[in-house]
Amino acid sequence: MNTAPVQVRDLRVSRGGRLVLPGLSTQLDSGTVTGLLGPSGSGKSTLIRSIAGVQRIDSGTVKILGYPAGTRAAARCLGYMTQASSVYTDLSVRENVAYWARISGAERGEAESVIEHLHLASLAGQPAGRLSGGQTSRVALACALVGNPPVLLLDEPTVGLDPVLREEIWDFLRERAAAGTTILVSSHVMDEAARCDKLLLIRHGEILATGSPDDIRKRTGVEDLDAAFLNLIKEHAA
Fold first, then answer.
1. Environment class of residue 200 by beta-carbon count within 10 Å: exposed (0-12), middle (13-18) or buried (19+)?
2. Rg of the Cα trace of the chain?
3. Edge-to-edge strands, sheet with 59-64
4. Which of 48, 69, 144, 234 could form a disulfide with 53 if both were Cys (CB 3.0 to 4.6 A apart)?
């Protein structure tokens, strides 16, 4: 019996009359950080939206801890950070995080703990609409993390962040994974791939390769993951 927390089978999705995912299958394992990598327009966000249960699908199945994606039971298991900011600009940073803490049933004080971890304490009383893009991204990430959901879906979580903060956020994600959280992180930046336990390299809605960074390097015979991805594209096109 497959006990992977996230299971995707034969997922087919069309958007705007265009077939984006032509029948994708994969799974996400417990306690791992999986990097979803590929160029813009490859289907990364569509796959994440499908797992989050907010994308209309043509066919196939997506399950989170055994629950069909989009159901209330599945939603309770998820923390989801969208690529476009979902922060309420008229609320303060603290009010935004506290709102999601109440929805997730987080323990008292957890909102403040997440705010501290993401270096938002000095901004906690400010309206989110006055923040910079990088600060807003941190607030959105805090909202996804609060409540310690067993599955985290993060769409481009480090865009616009300085290198020091990116490093600290990755350390935080590694801690969550070590505690058993299943994490999917999308990115088009290959230098983040080496931080992941497992990679899904996707192009035109199809998975070109899956495995650890070392697996990908061995398969392609190159150390640089950018070059490895290009080799896989050439291999797939041949």
1. buried
2. 18
3. 18-28, 6-15, 59-64, 67-68
4. 69
Distance CA 7, CA 194 (A): 23
**Could you list the pLDDT tens digit for every one of the 238 residues in the chain?**
568 999 999 999 999 999 999 999 999 999 999 999 988 889 999 999 999 999 999 999 999 999 999 999 999 999 999 877 789 999 999 999 999 998 888 887 899 999 998 889 999 999 999 998 888 988 999 999 998 999 999 988 887 778 888 888 888 899 999 999 999 999 877 778 889 999 999 999 999 999 999 999 999 999 888 888 888 888 877 6
Q: Is 0.70 surpassed by the pTM of this model?
A: yes
How many whole angstroms separate alpha carbon 51 and alpha carbon 45? 10
Q: Phi and psi (nearest 5°) for 219?
A: -65, -40
Residue among 184, 186, 181 nearest 159 (CA)? 186
